[in-house]
Structures are given as structure tokens and as C-alpha cells.
Design brief:
D-amino Acid Aminotransferase, Chain A, domain 1; Helix Hairpins; single chain; 24 strands; 684 residues; five-stranded mixed sheet; binds 2-(butylsulfanyl)adenosine; OB fold (Dihydrolipoamide Acetyltransferase, E2P); 6 domains; 36% helix; alpha+beta
């Protein structure tokens, strides 16, 4: 066969195989026997091997995998990957509808869909070819897992039809069907590997594998449910779904349009039962406004669209016996009582332990050792004890006593008024707190030093090399080389040996070096200050821009920042009041860690407001004041506190002080409403 003939044959085979894949994996309606299919595929693989120059990147042979990814590249999402507001009750759904009604002032149609319990993914197609697949990550940046996604046979590598946009993104969920999950876990047990706890974890673990040929064997699947942006010509979400289906995507056949609350509730009620007959997990239902113009009008909060909401199914419950209670010390020193249970099957997994929250809940539950109790498990949440079956209480059931001293360092526990948790105050001397803080510091969303993961912190701590995060940056080759430890893994009996050889040491030192590029917001999160999670750290970093400014901030200045309440403000002030922490910051600064925001990388959406100054005052209907201020900055404008002749606009909401209006009138400063402001932005 010459090259011209091969090219022709490759095109025919590719087309044929693509169609069969679509029939089998997307429509579940095979049109060819396995044997014949395998022959077609084998022929294509052979031809591509003989004529490698003819192998196309979107060839169906790509589904077989083979590419190895050592490290997944981090990619910024074109549109942030937001989450959805959760509800658990019909009442909240009604409130959602009322909100929407009020803002749109129009008749609203909804689309109800299944909420797939998997791993979110965004696929980018250019000229009908799959170019990139990115996981959610932190919503702003995710991992490029394209080579692994290409192995999923229901995901089109080349689109059907010709009416798709030249470039667009489609979002969906990668799931692992029950049958594949069970098969995979059986295999893992046989191989001596730990089984995955649930299909979602298995899907997530599979997407992060380095060998895509192995991913191909896992039988992942994907459902798609959203076209972000407006690169397409459609007016409704439902049209988007229908079009995407015609391009070859797997779109659930259970998406329906609803006009009334009753129809929405019917859908929820049906699926809260029918979900058990599905071959994959769903954890709720998603309700979306169908009309895209209305969606646009509704907009977004910082975290989620206002035009959609998810109704989460209630967690499953089981009854079992409480055998004993252990007290664990977390990285913040908080004491968590953990119940050891008689193993019980719950929501597809065997539960042996459950959280007992805190001392108050223990007394409120009146739970005793030996009791039959009810455990509940929902999604990611650790199973928790929700009640006691008092009828079954044995006579010798033992009341639970909360400890008064730290089980790890014997320090007397303390409790802040108004808080439920007991704490070990020995922050800098209690081993699990020190190790926990270090583990947090190096974790992925913090400093992302994965070369220090998997027990290495423990070795450094045991060898007296590190007690706090600044110590990490004093580590040298000589400290590290040759360190080793054998330790028992927590779940299984298998012992593991870790030893620091040349390569490990080089990786650790490189990892520490690279962490010096991590932006200030993540450094702030990494410090592990109580109540400062990822989002709060971002808000604080963007507001104060540097650690010095944050340290100087007074209580009122802190609580003025969006989402910063009194509890967080107090925690920050208290943290900076310890000289040990100031010393820590100084050492991190000397080590070269980023302790201020790099202004050049602060996100800009446009320059349309550049040179314009705004005073934002009053209460607004669609956005919070902080959201408006942020939007002004994102478009190049500036916010100022009081009106002067240099002010470009007074952005006025309800209940604005009369003095401001008077002053604006006097200086002839244009007073604009929220709608005027949106119009200015949309004119760009
Ligand atoms: S729409 C802008 N539809 O649930 C929000 N999400 O808890 C677009 N999910 O991040 C998401 N099924 O990963 C949407 N039918 C569905 C979904 C769905 C599952 C996931 C998705 C989302 C998360 C929110």
C-alpha cells in the first residue's frame, strides 16, 4: 500500500470507528460486533504505525492512550469554574425561584438536570478538534489532563456535523459507572492496592494517573451540561444541550424543561428514588434558568451563578454500634472526638469511624459506649453520628467523658467562650499541631511542595530538623541526605520505608525553591491562621496587598473587607500579636517567600474604566457594594471614598446619604445607577 492509498484507508477507518464509538459509548446502541470493531481498530493502529506521518491528533486510536504525563501542566480557565449554590429543601427552591422572578421580572422557564457525582472538566475544541481538557483545580486554574481525557471513548476527539463554533469550551463531569468501579476495586484488592472509597474518588484518582494507557482501561465516562461564554448562537440552555448532543457529546437524556415549581418538585422527587436505578452516582438535581439573556441578567456571585442552584439529596443513614471513642488533635489544636464503630455498609462504602463533632454535641446526643447509633454520610463529608437508638441502649452503656488534657502533649485543654471546640493551646510544642501545620503549609492549594508529601514531614520532624515552616527553608543537602524511616501506614498493616537518596533530596530542595514563586494569597493561606481558608486568604491578600498592611490593619479595617467577620478579624489580630509569628514572617521574607501581591498579575478584565474614579454608595439590588467595587477595579477603574471634583461618577444605590447627592450635584458629578453602570460595561 502506498501513502496515498494509506491516507484514504485511514480516513475511511477513522470515520467508521468514530461512528461506532458514538453508537456504542454515547448512544448505548452498538451497530457492530466486538470482534469486527477490534479488527477495524487494529487495522487503523497498524496503518498509523506504518505511516506515522498520517496519524492525526484526533484519530480514534488516541482513545487507546499510551502517552505518559510526568507532571500535569496548570492552565488558567478562560471562564472561572464556579460551583453551585446548594439547597436541601423545597422552601429554598421556592426562595430561589422568587429571587429569580424578582430580578428578571419576567416569565422564567427552567431546565432540571441530574447532578452527576464525579469530577468537573472543561474541554476546549478548535475547529471541531479536542484541544485541551482541564480539571476544575481551584476554579481559576486547573490541571491539563488532555492525554487522559482523550482515552475516554464517549468523548469525541473530532466533532460531528459542521455547525459548531470555531472555538468553544464545553463543561461536564467525568464519572465512573458502578460496574467499572466494582471491577476496578476487585482488581485493586487482588493486586494488594487499597480500594477506592467511592466512584468519584476513583474517577478523580484515574484522571491524575501518569500512564494514559492505564486510564484507558478504567472505563471512565463523561456527561456534558454547560457551554460557558457566548461563542455560540443559541438563546437557551436547552438549545445548547441539543446542539452539543448533535456534535457527538454525551448529554443526559434526563434534562427536562419545567415551567412551574410543581414540575421542578416532581423531577426532584422522582430522581431522589430513581437514582438508585442509574448505573452511576448522582448526588442531586441541578435547576437552571433556560433563557440565556435571563441568565446574563441574573449574573454571578463570587462563587456561583445566580441562574442555577443544586438540590442535594439527603444523606444516607445506617445503624450500628459505638465501640469506643478516640480523641484526635488537628493542626489547629482542635480536639475531634472520633467514634470507632462496628463496621457498617453505608452509601456504597464500609464505615468504621465517624465524627462526633465536639463536647456539646456529645452531651446533646447523650451518646454512650455500647449504644446503637445512627450514622449519616453525604458526599465528601466524613460520616457523622446523628442520633442514638435509646430503645436499644444496653444496661451497661458507658457515659462518655470528654478529656481535659491533650492526648498528645498532656497540656490542659482550653475553650474560647462562644466556641464549641476544645483546643490544645500548646501550638508550638504539640507534635500533631506542628506536623499538621507543616503538612498544611506544603499542601497543594498552599505552597504546593509535593516533594515533601507522603510522610516526609514526619521524618524531618522526628529528626528535629523542622518545627515551623520557616525551618523548611534552612534545610540543606547535608541535613537531608541519608535520612530514613520505616513506618506503619495508618490503614493497612503494610510497612513502608522512606529514605532520602540523591533524587529525593534534589526534589525536595527544588520544590522548596519553586515555592518561592507562590503568590502571597496562597502563602497567607499556607500559614494556617485559624479561620483563614483559601477564599478568605484571597480576599485579604487582594485587599491589603502585603503582609505588612495586613499586620497593621485594625479590627474595623479588617471587618470592612467582604466576607471578613469579627471572628476572622480577631483571629488575624491575635496571630500577629505573637512575637513568634512575627519572627516567622521575617524568616520567610529572608528566605524569599512572596509576602505581597504582585500588582502586575492582579487580574484585569478590560481597561474600559481606566482613568475613571468612582464613589460607590448605598445599597444595590443586583450586586453587593464590594462586588461593584471589585468590578470597577477589574475593568481598570479606581474606587475612592469621598466625592471631589476629580470624581468621574457617583454610583448610587438605595438609601444613599443626602449629603453625598448634594455634593455630587454641586460639583456636577454624574450620578449613575447600577443599571447605568452595567450599560457602561456592556458598551465595551
Ligand atoms: S452546571 C456555573 N450541571 O456540580 C456552574 N453542574 O456543585 C455550571 N455538576 O461545578 C455547573 N452535574 O462540577 C452543572 N448537570 C449539572 C451538573 C453539575 C454535576 C457539578 C459541577 C459543578 C458542581 C457544583
Amino acid at each position: 500500500m502506498d501513502e496515498i492509498q494509506a491516507k484514504e484507508r485511514i480516513a475511511i477507518l477513522s470515520d467508521e470507528i468514530r461512528k461506532h464509538n458514538h453508537q456504542y459509548y454515547v448512544l448505548s446502541c452498538p451497530t457492530i460486533g466486538d470482534f469486527e470493531f477490534d479488527q477495524l481498530l487494529a487495522e487503523l493502529i497498524r496503518l498509523e504505525k506504518d505511516f506515522p506521518q498520517l496519524a492525526e491528533p484526533d484519530s480514534p486510536t488516541q482513545h487507546v492512550g499510551g502517552e505518559i504525563t510526568k507532571e500535569f501542566k496548570q492552565v488558567e480557565h478562560k471562564y472561572p469554574m464556579l460551583s453551585l449554590g446548594n439547597t436541601y429543601s423545597e422552601e429554598e427552591i421556592r426562595e430561589f425561584e422568587e429571587r429569580i422572578q424578582k430580578i428578571t421580572g419576567d416569565e422564567v422557564e427552567y431546565v432540571c438536570e441530574l447532578k452527576f457525582d464525579g469530577v468537573a472538566i472543561g474541554l476546549t475544541y478548535r475547529n471541531g478538534q479536542l484541544m485541551q481538557a482541564v480539571t476544575r483545580g481551584d476554579g481559576i486554574r486547573g490541571d491539563d489532563v488532555t492525554s487522559n481525557i482523550k482515552t475516554i471513548k464517549s468523548i469525541p476527539l473530532k466533532l460531528m456535523g459542521n455547525d459548531f463554533p470555531a472555538e468553544f469550551e464545553i463543561r461536564g463531569e467525568i464519572i465512573l459507572p458502578h460496574a467499572s468501579f466494582e471491577k476496578m476495586n476487585e482488581q485493586r484488592l487482588e493486586d494488594g492496592d487499597d480500594p477506592f472509597a467511592n466512584p468519584r474518588n476513583a474517577a478523580s484518582g484515574s484522571l491524575k494517573m501518569q500512564d494514559s494507557a492505564e486510564v484507558a482501561r478504567r472505563n471512565l465516562d463523561g456527561f456534558f451540561y454547560y457551554l460557558p461564554g457566548n461563542e455560540h448562537p443559541f438563546n437557551t440552555h436547552y438549545e445548547c444541550l441539543t446542539a452539543a448532543r448533535s456534535w457527538g457529546f454525551k448529554i443526559s437524556e434526563y434534562a427536562v424543561r419545567c415551567k412551574t415549581s410543581e414540575e421542578i418538585f416532581d423531577y426532584i422527587n422522582t430522581w431522589s428514588v430513581a437514582r438508585y436505578n442509574l448505573p452511576f452516582d448522582i448526588d442531586g438535581v441541578v435547576i437552571k434558568v433556560n433563557n440565556l439573556k435571563q441568565q446574563e441578567k441574573l449574573g454571578y456571585t463570587a462563587k456561583s451563578p445566580r441562574w442555577a442552584i443544586s438540590y442535594k439529596f439527603k444523606a444516607e443513614q445506617a445503624a450500628t454500634k459505638l465501640l469506643s471513642v478516640a480523641f484526635q488533635v488537628g493542626r489547629t489544636g482542635a480536639i475531634t472526638p472520633v467514634a470507632n464503630l462496628q463496621p457498617v455498609q453505608l452509601a456504597g462504602t464500609v464505615v468504621k469511624r465517624a465524627s462526633l463533632h465536639n463536647a456539646d454535641i456529645i452531651s446533646a446526643l447523650d451518646v454512650r459506649i455500647g449504644d446503637m447509633i445512627f450514622v449519616e454520610k453525604g458526599g465528601e463529608i466524613i460520616p457523622k453520628i446523628i442520633g442514638v437508638d435509646f430503645d436499644k441502649r444496653p444496661d451497661d452503656a458507658m457515659p462518655l467523658k470528654f478529656i481535659s488534657k491533650c492526648p498528645e502533649c498532656d497540656t490542659v485543654l482550653v475553650r474560647t467562650e462562644g466556641e464549641s471546640a476544645w483546643y490544645c493551646p500548646n501550638e508550638n510544642g504539640c507534635p500533631p499541631q506542628i506536623k499538621g501545620k507543616l503538612e498544611h503549609f506544603i499542601s497543594r492549594k498552599a505552597m504546593n511542595i509535593d516533594s515533601l508529601g507522603e510522610g516526609k514531614i514526619e521524618i524531618l520532624f522526628d529528626n528535629d530538623l523542622v518545627h515551623n515552616c520557616a525551618d523548611l527553608y534552612d534545610l540543606t543537602y547535608d541535613h537531608l541526605i541519608g535520612l530514613e524511616k520505616t513506618y506503619e501506614s495508618s490503614d493497612e498493616k503494610k510497612d513502608r520505608k522512606i529514605s532520602f537518596r540523591e533524587k529525593t533530596v534534589a526534589n525536595i530542595l527544588n520544590g522548596l525553591e519553586s515555592s518561592k514563586n507562590i503568590s502571597f494569597d496562597r502563602v497567607l493561606y499556607a500559614l494556617g491562621i485559624r479561620f483563614i481558608g483559601e477564599t478568605v486568604a484571597k480576599k485579604l491578600a487582594c485587599h491589603f496587598m502585603s503582609v505588612e498592611k495586613l499586620q497593621e490593619a485594625e479590627f474595623n479595617e479588617l471587618t470592612e473587607v467582604e466576607e471578613i467577620g469579627e471572628k476572622i478579624a480577631r483571629s488575624i489580630i491575635s496571630w500577629f500579636s505573637f512575637s513568634k509569628n512575627i519572627e516567622l514572617i521575617n524568616r520567610l521574607r529572608i528566605a524569599g517567600i512572596q509576602l505581597s501581591m504582585d500588582e502586575s498579575i492582579v487580574l484585569k478584565l478590560s481597561d474600559i474604566l481606566s482613568g475613571k474614579t468612582f464613589v460607590v454608595s448605598g445599597v444595590f439590588e443586583k450586586f453587593s457594594r464590594d462586588e461593584l467595587k471589585k468590578t470597577i477595579e477589574l475593568h481598570g477603574g479606581k474606587n475612592i471614598g469621598s466625592i471631589s471634583s476629580k470624581t468621574s461618577y457617583l454610583l448610587a444605590g438605595e438609601n444613599m446619604g443626602p449629603e453625598k447627592r448634594k455634593k455630587a450635584d454641586k460639583l456636577a458629578i454624574p450620578i449613575i445607577s447600577e443599571i447605568d453602570f452595567i450599560n457602561i460595561l456592556e458598551a465595551k
